[in-house]
Amino acid sequence: IAGITQAPTSQILAAGRRMTLRCTQDMRHNAMYWYRQDLGLGLRLIHYSNTAGTTGKGEVPDGYSVSRANTDDFPLTLASAVPSQTSVYFCASSWVAGAQETQYFGPGTRLLVL
Amino acid sequence: GENVEQHPSTLSVQEGDSAVIKCTYSDSASNYFPWYKQELGKRPQLIIDIRSNVGEKKDQRIAVTLNKTAKHFSLHITETQPEDSAVYFCATARRQGNLIFGKGTKLSVKP
């Protein structure tokens, strides 16, 4: 693994189903993030984690949950998907130590909820 | 809450011309201002950033200027090329804070 990866690349999901989007980084970054990107709305933060074992809510957290059991992995779970969660999801990571540093993004997961 | 306004939403220029994208922000505690470029179907990638102790930063054809008093910062691309066509996002952050992104500018460079 080099950098930050996401799985799956794309997914079609029936409404009401549970889905976990996976994110893994090998840069030993302490901070990780999940964004959703919708046309005309830019990148909106769903959840973040400043270090393993801690998580926080972003701008649009409702309907999503995250966990950070270790440094490398930051999965995003949709407990019961709804059509409004159709979006492109990007995971990102960065090193934060006294100041924000460059965020590196994964390739994204395209999710369609029907 | 904190807000970042980005203008214009779309920008079309001729190859070789300059392009300027401007962002204004509301949080006076913001001290980190990155710009990301996203090509169609790809991930956002950092192209340049500036911190509040600097007024201007340049990297080849790309420059960013910051006016903390007026709470705005701008991306300047000179001698534009077709490969500069992409969506550009500005963002702000407080010290150790999360990034807040603008809604993006779609730049088209016509050969």
Descriptive report:
The complex is a heterodimer of chains A (114) and B (111). Chain A is mostly beta strands and 114 residues long. Chain A has strands at 4-7, 10-13, 19-25, 31-38, 42-49, 56-57, 64-66, 76-78, 87-94, 104-105, 109-113. In chain A, the strands form two sheets. In chain A, strands 2, 4, 5, 6, 9, 10 and 11 form a seven-stranded mixed β-sheet that branches. Chain A has a four-stranded antiparallel β-sheet with strand order 1-3-8-7, with no helix packed on it. In chain A, a hairpin with a 3-residue loop joins strand 4 and strand 5. Chain A is globular and about 40 Å long. The N and C termini of chain A lie far apart (32 Å). In chain A, 35% of the residues are buried. The mean pLDDT of chain A is 95. Chain B has 111 residues and is mainly beta. Helices cover 0% and strands 55% of the residues of chain B. In chain B, a hairpin with a 7-residue loop joins strand 9 (86-92) and strand 10. The model of chain B has no long low-confidence stretch (mean pLDDT 94). Chains A and B meet through strand 5 and strand 10 of A and strand 5 and strand 10 of B.
